[in-house]
Amino acid sequence: MSQYDTQQDPEPSGWAIAGVSFAAVMLMTIGIFQALSGLSAIINDDFYAVGQNYAFNLDVSGWGWIHLIIGIVLVFGGWALFAGKTWARVLAIILAVLSAIANFFYIPYYPFWALLIIALDVWVIWALTRPGLRERV
């Protein structure tokens, strides 16, 4: 029996567990914000001012549907992360990346809001990729 057989991995710190829990809450909050933003674009096309000469010109309703779908999936991803599902951390990181990319393209329509959501997505990615986290939350 070697020394490695008796050595166990250290338990994650309370800070790490709290970070994942907070990331789950933030992911669900971002999802709700995304869904509300999407609904407002779908219901009222004139709510967002569309800038001219933007390389990625998409109808405001199209962006609304994209944000609504991403928002719903983010809420379910946050819920799965809270539930401690094994696959939830990877899914949450992928969804946060997709949300950040979608909001990057959304900057001309609602700049401050898009940058705020991108910052929150980056924080969620950071919190979920911290070293030393185990599968339990």
Protein topology:
Blueprint: H1 3-6, H2 14-43, H3 60-83, H4 88-105, H5 111-128
Question: Quick summary of this structure?
Answer:
This protein has 137 residues and is mainly alpha-helical. 69% of the residues lie in helices and 0% in strands.
Distance N to C terminus: 31 Å
Instruction: Indicate the overall shape.
Output: elongated
Query: Count of helices?
Result: 5
Tell me the radius of gyration. 18 Å
How do the helices and strands follow one another from N- to C-terminus?
A: HHHHH
Output the structural class: mainly alpha
Helical content stands at 55-70%
Largest sheet: none
Low-confidence stretches: none
Average residue pLDDT? 81
> DSSP strand (E) fraction?
under 5%
Q: What's the total number of strands? A: 0
Provide key terms for this protein.
mainly alpha, 5 helices, 0% strand, 137 residues, elongated
Textual characterization of the structure:
By secondary structure, the protein is an all-alpha fold. The protein is built from five helices and no strands. Helix 2 packs antiparallel against helix 5 (111-128), helix 3 (60-83) packs antiparallel against helix 4 and helix 4 (88-105) packs antiparallel against helix 5 (111-128). The longest helix is centred in the first third of the chain and has 30 residues, at 14-43. It is elongated, with a radius of gyration of 18 Å.
